[in-house]
Amino acid sequence: MKIAMIGDVFSKSGRAILKAKLPQLVKKENIDLVVVNGENISNGKGINNNHYVFLKELGVDVITSGNHIFKLKETQDFIKTTPDLLRPLNMNSYLPGQGTIMLHKNGQKVRVTNLMGKTFMEHVNNPYEIMDNLLLNDTSDIHIVDFHAEASAEKMAFAWNYDGQISALVGTHTHVQTADEQIFPKGTGYITDLGMTGPINSIIGANPEEVILREKTSLPTKFTPCENPGVLRGVVLEVVGKVTKSIKKFAIS
């Protein structure tokens, strides 16, 4: 099975490049399943219902997220009826939505799970405890994890711990695509960060001058999404059985 994992789609530029290039990617690579991190798709923070529908109309199978998932109040309502829009599984259990989903694709059971790291992030429950409990009763043939975290070491340690138990773990959140795509000894595919699907010549999606002003002066400064042309970033996984046979990153403009 070939799976496209696409990094954080950021605002208008991210939506535009995704719409323009995703169909071509799916056709060229014979993609069977598309997973997109959509937590920044609406004006750079959060996801509204219109943009959820936008992603589904593009053929996205599962939408993952992270710490910005509930930045828009409306998300708390519509996420209750959209099981393919995930919030991190190890967030507060009283929050609406779910953090994992099982799909049936090409005669196989494919699980996609969304988790969030603890280092330099908002408080969440221990991802190891949550993952261990999930795996106790998991019957999936393929299991892909979006681990939304700041620290690269945290992402890598988590992936190594579950090498051979999951098919792949991809990192999101930093918006910077890393060059460490690899397959661990027991067959788990890995990359520290998929990167951002969003505007070039920006600072992780925002206009550079605004970020520089805050960094230089410490003044409270509102960041606005940059509207430069976008780049589509992520990886294509080829999974056979539960094992990743290849992982190939892309950056398409």
From TrEMBL:
<feature type="binding site">
    <location>
        <position position="39"/>
    </location>
    <ligand>
        <name>Fe cation 1</name>
    </ligand>
</feature>
<feature type="binding site">
    <location>
        <position position="175"/>
    </location>
    <ligand>
        <name>Fe cation 1</name>
    </ligand>
</feature>
<dbReference type="GO" id="GO:0046872">
    <property type="term" value="F:metal ion binding"/>
</dbReference>
<feature type="active site" description="Proton donor">
    <location>
        <position position="68"/>
    </location>
</feature>
<feature type="binding site">
    <location>
        <position position="173"/>
    </location>
    <ligand>
        <name>Fe cation 2</name>
    </ligand>
</feature>
<dbReference type="InterPro" id="IPR029052">
    <property type="entry name" value="Metallo-depent_PP-like"/>
</dbReference>
<feature type="binding site">
    <location>
        <position position="8"/>
    </location>
    <ligand>
        <name>Fe cation 1</name>
    </ligand>
</feature>
<dbReference type="Pfam" id="PF13277">
    <property type="entry name" value="YmdB"/>
</dbReference>
<feature type="binding site">
    <location>
        <position position="40"/>
    </location>
    <ligand>
        <name>Fe cation 1</name>
    </ligand>
</feature>
<feature type="binding site">
    <location>
        <position position="148"/>
    </location>
    <ligand>
        <name>Fe cation 2</name>
    </ligand>
</feature>
<dbReference type="InterPro" id="IPR005235">
    <property type="entry name" value="YmdB-like"/>
</dbReference>
<keyword id="KW-0479">Metal-binding</keyword>
<protein>
    <recommendedName>
        <fullName>Metallophosphatase</fullName>
    </recommendedName>
</protein>
<feature type="binding site">
    <location>
        <position position="67"/>
    </location>
    <ligand>
        <name>Fe cation 2</name>
    </ligand>
</feature>
<feature type="binding site">
    <location>
        <position position="39"/>
    </location>
    <ligand>
        <name>Fe cation 2</name>
    </ligand>
</feature>
<dbReference type="GO" id="GO:0004113">
    <property type="term" value="F:2',3'-cyclic-nucleotide 3'-phosphodiesterase activity"/>
</dbReference>
